[in-house]
Amino acid sequence: WEVAAMTARLPAPGLGGITAVAAGGVAYIFGGVSGPPPTSVVDTILRYDPAADAIETLAVRLPQPTFLAAVAWDGTHAYVFGGFAGTALTDAIVRFDPAAPAVTTMTARLPEPLARTAVAEDEHYLYVMGGNTGGFTPTGFVGTIAIYDPVGDTVRAGVGIPSPRASRIGAIRCNGGIYFFGGWGPSGKFDQVLLYRPDVEITVLPARLPEALDGGSLACDGTRIYLFGGETATAIVDDIVVFDTTDDSIATAPVTLPTPRKGHAAVWIGGSAYVFGGQTETGLTAEILRVTPP
Length: 294
What we know:
By secondary structure, this protein is an all-beta fold. The chain has strands at 2-5, 19-23, 26-30, 45-49, 54-57, 70-73, 78-81, 84-85, 88-89, 92-97, 102-109, 118-121, 126-129, 145-149, 154-157, 171-174, 177-181, 184-185, 188-189, 192-197, 201-208, 217-220, 224-231, 236-244, 249-252, 265-269, 272-276, 279-280, 283-284, 288-292. A hairpin with a 4-residue loop joins strand 14 and strand 15. The protein is globular, with a radius of gyration of 17 Å.
């Protein structure tokens, strides 16, 4: 294992509540907070090139400052779902075209304004899972899955999740499956791993996270999913948890992040995961980490 801090950094003093996708060998990082919300919510889209270890702020911006949103890549565009627009929740769906580059607010909307929702994609649709409507308070958890069709720009309801929950870890497609990790709900945080089969069912797998967790980030290398950091009921953590989709096993990596963090984002590019920013025990961080498993 190798965990290395890159020379490039996010804009000072750092960003939390961010989301990111990988596309064409680079990462795009959307929104976030650079200090206490709502005055420090940003509308930026950052582009990080790991080959050059270079980061830039694109001229194109999100329609409004946004954090705690969710994002997924459909092969051509990134779609940003919901989140906080300042202090208010939004039901907006925003499309980012990196080729132009351009940002478009879609006509379709989420069923209701949501933050801390999870999203993953397959060859046809994007699946927006869970979330909460209670603003900054831990209330208003939802157990719905909204299915977004980027071709028709429509939203319909899918099967629900086993119990209402929000997730700052999110969901990810890996090895043909869509997986949802941890999260938090009316009774606290979850240690569950859910497998979603679109329009069929969502299953609670026997495997469990080492502890109930929220606030981490995910990356997939093709068969293994890496969960970085996060927050338990009592502490921010620095663990790297590895879930193997071939046998549904879970292990904790023998290395850790340099510091515990939550509210960060991660992507997988060229044999490594890249972990961006987040909130540490002492404040926001601008670090970009490269994590390379054996």
